[in-house]
Amino acid sequence: IMNFDGLDAGMGEYPPSLHGTLEAVMEPSMDPHLNPSLLQGVELDPEGLAVTVPEAVHLMEGMFSELHSAVSEVGIPVTATHFDLQEEMLWMGNHRGHVTSFFGPTMGRHSSFQAHASDDIRHIHSLETGVLFLSKCNLKCHTRGGLVMFDYPLEEGADMHSLLMTDNNTVLMGGLQNYAVELDLNTVQETQKFTVDVPGVAIMRQTGRFFYCGHTSGKITLRDLRSFKTEHEFDAFSGSLSDFDVHGNLLAACGFSSRGMNGLACDRFLMVYDLRMMRAVTPLQVHVDPLFLRFIPTYTSRLAIISQTGQCQFCEPTGLANMADIFHVNTVGQVLMSFDVSSSKQALAFGDSGGCVHLWSDAPEVSFNDYSRETEFALPCLVDTLPQLDWNHDLLPLSIIPTPLTSTEHLLSDWSPAKATPSPRRAPPVDPEILRAMKTVGFIGYAANPRTRPRNQVPYKIKDVELDYDNYNQVPESPIGRDEEPHLYMVPKKYRKVTIKYSKLGLEDFDFKHYNRTLFAGLEPHIPNAYCNFVVLLFLCCLASSSTCWIYFLIRPLQLLKASNFLRAFRTIPEASALGLILADSDEQTGKARLGRLIQSWNRFILTQLHQETQEQEGPQAYRGASSSSLGSSGESAIGKLFGCEVENSSLCRCGKETVRSSLSLLFTMHYPEQNSQEKTIKEYDFSEILKKSICLEQSTQAWCENCEKYQPTVQTRNIRCLPDVLVINCEVNSAKEAEFWKVQAEYAFNKAMQKEKMEPAKPKEPPPPMPTEWCLDGEGTCNMEGITFDTRAEDLRHVWIPPSLKMSISKSQGLEIGSWPEGEELSTEEEEEGASVYDLVVTVPHILDARTGGNLVAHIKVGETYHQRKEGVTHQQWYLFNDFLIEPIDKTEAAQFDVSWKVPGILYYAKRNYHTKYDLRIKNPIDASVLLTEASLARKQRKSHATFIPLMVSEMPQAGELVGLDAEFVTLNQEEAELRSDGTKSTIKPSQMSVARITCVRGQGPNEGVPFIDDYISTQEQVVDYLTQYSGIKPGDLDAKISSKHLTTLKSTYLKLRFLIDTGVRFVGHGLQKDFRVINLLVLKDQVVDTVYLFHLPRKRMISLRFLAWYFLELNIQGETHDSIEDARTALQLYRKHLELSRAGGNDEVRKVLKGLYEKGRQLDWKVPESETGDGQGSPKSAAVFPSVMGL
């Protein structure tokens, strides 16, 4: 760092590490420059132990004299010395990265280890728990015994020279680069990086007012303690700075002055500054060539000035130097390279170029610190001395004779503390019978005592008995191998929980096609409450008759992308939070949530909530019913039409009083028969029989009787008056008892199928059917895809209990009748006239039990002919497995198979056959052009004078194919979660969650081209953690309706506008629209997107920023301080016009030639836009004449 030209010639051989590097190749044993006289009368220990001073040395009180000297490695220069601030130790580091510590004034060696492989040690600082060692591009922390606590590599090209502890847990590092780094020692992470002027910071000091930074240019800057900004500057020396120190109100510095052609010379005048008036006082002339200086305040503010040749002079900073105050460090011809003063100011340490450390003191009994803690030493190898035994003594007890251990067994004392620690017993689970029969009133549950256990007594058991389903979800041991993980063999790969591996580009380079080769869009699992993904998918299949804008708006984008819009609305419902349906991220990631119960509760809640909300409001129709339901009334809803079933509940008291009430039921819960304790085997039941008993439920319970005017035992029965179009069933397999019942019934059904197959004659062998993906297209023969079925063998029916089809009817005489029905058969005319209906299984939602991942939910959905006809041009029905973004076709029997050891049934949907013929399934757009007209702002302070856009007139409504410039700005709701691997690479666990904050659309043609017609700031109810002002232009308060002056709208209002533009067929022009639409959560067809990122891009080359493209092609200087979406949208439109102009002029060859020139120019400028020469920050005057009609806004 410092320039020492003109100093002693010997200094050029071993300059300090601060002033350059030495040759790395030195003789390890003895350096040729080391004066042999250094070793006269000194006995060197071969292990490098302390070298003691002859006993004849006597120290005079108050006068500094040499106390001891020690050699660490002979001939290796000592580049750093440091007195430990906590213990009586002296540290030294040499040119080869080796450090050694010496204990006390006798300098006995304490520890010695290699801190860096090759670089020299440039600074040492002691902490409470360890010691910091700074080298050129590395900071290490070791314990005082030498164990590594952390190793922090710095940026490539760093040249660090000094460090400074700013508080107990923060260190500041500076060197010969244009920045200083602040590091948090607790997390070992960089917290701030401060920019400094070249050539950097060589020396740093600190007081309660400022940071003091010494530069190689000879200047000393005083910087703010918080912002590190320069407050004052002292131009101390014309050549270079050597050292400086601060004490009280004084700052003293030594350095070099320029001597013209002769280079630099050591200046014997010390510059002294008064920090109260921030000016220099009279310089202090000394009699030595100063290299180091320190304040040694005892009774006065003494200064110690050290020269490279070992001369030391003491003087007052405001007085005159006295020749009598000079003493000499006997370096035996070597030069001094490091110097330090103890915190007690009683000891001085000098390190020379010969590898020797000299300890000087002004008292015989020296103490390095005022209060030092006790130092730990390595324990010596002690050998127990055994007592002398007198064999001739008659009373000698033989028990004192030690006996060797001959057994190989482990002793009890060898157990680890973890195994010997007592663990408390967990509370036993609640009896499943109590949970099943419990009635909840508010937040209190009431249930009868089953009296299966003694009162206030819990049996003590060594092994936990799995009584509850919470313990049941552990996967049983695999028969394949005891040493291997059982769940890898129990759960098939396609059913396991899938995760996204994020890279630097986020989701852009993740291969979703590997998991999904269908035409469906998968759902991303990283969004909050993603467990709802699969039930949301059901509405795509079942809400075909949805008639409200609300449902249309939430569900329509879902056909295209992901469920974040729906789940964001779901999180704002207070009832969902009260019912425990809103999961914390930790519960969802760690698998603590009981997904089986949770998804059934969510299914019940969402159906009820949608029914209530769609019943209260009337919106524009998305679908028009062809016929009215039997429940036709002013209060019916789309949900009620599809899932509703009018139910009659009867309550009969023992007094004979009967109460009948009617209600609407949207789903039914399965109720399983009670198992008597005397019966060891479970009886065989048909699924239709259990379903009928669950729908027409009869149970005894305590209820209030108005006739008796008290609670009485009553018999409650339920009957249905009509059949729903979609029958929703919650399976309620929530305990081991219910799972065992389901398993046994599946075994009964499988055995029946096997016996039936044996009795039937063998069928002739048929050619194999086509694969599900090989459909016959229109015009390719007479292939009829309807009824493509695969022969279902009895072996495939293992673990299947539920039938693929059910026949249901209601008669006045017998009531509800349910029975299994062959899948391919139709009802006769007589049965249809009697009101019978066939229900086909269309959806199953199982809970996957996986101990490795905590479990997950999947869905089997039967996609009908309408979808395949529209998307693939074929007539076919196919089952699909939906596991987040993993989607693949499956066989129909797999959808009904439930191996309860890992696949537990949760929800079943049965749909009435051909029920959709009642509805007109043609999608009607519920959004009209009125959404683009004038709209009031939510902001209270918004005025017309603040308007940044002009709404469209009726005559300006966009048509299909017209251009619209679009740009969006975003804010961050949740920061990215990442982990640092052991190799130093970063792995993203969960990406940051962004939310759209501003959307701007500008006219793309006509007389008002470039004038914005949408400039919406979107209010959000969720907490914003980062407004990204530098990139978005959004400031705190812009999205707050109370204080914002912007045109503030709701997310739904802006989505309606974009949805209308997309459905109209306009072409959006913008820069980076692919990423924008992904965050906005809208999927736009490729034909409707013109992205300037790809227009001006060559294959296998980098993407180019909008700012550089605007400067290169349009001579515009945009995005000066922050981004503005209006400016960006206009610029993208102009770039598109420029591209069309280039294409018309010379075709693709001309465009490619221009792009090559663009990339060549970008490489020359390092892709940075040159500063504007006009000085107005606007670049070319073109920016004021592009759209003259906009200037009036």
UniProtKB/TrEMBL annotation:
Class of enzymatic activity (EC top level): hydrolase
Domain USP: 521-913
GO molecular function, one term: nucleic acid binding
Activity: how regulated: Positively regulated by the regulatory subunit PAN3.
Note on how the cofactor is bound: Binds 2 metal cations per subunit in the catalytic exonuclease domain.
Positions with a binding annotation for a divalent metal cation: 967, 969, 1076, 1128
Any GO BP annotation: positive regulation of cytoplasmic mRNA processing body assembly
Pfam families for the chain: PAN2_N, RNase_T, UCH_1
Keyword Zinc part of the UniProt annotation: no
Cell compartment(s), UniProt: Cytoplasm, P-body; Nucleus
Domain characteristics, as noted in the entry: Contains a pseudo-UCH domain. This ubiquitin C-terminal hydrolase (UCH)-like or ubiquitin specific protease (USP)-like domain is predicted to be catalytically inactive because it lacks the active site catalytic triad characteristic of thiol proteases, with residues at the equivalent structural positions that are incompatible with catalysis, and it cannot bind ubiquitin. It functions as a structural scaffold for intra- and intermolecular interactions in the complex.
This protein's name: PAN2-PAN3 deadenylation complex catalytic subunit PAN2
Organism: Cyclopterus lumpus (Lumpsucker)
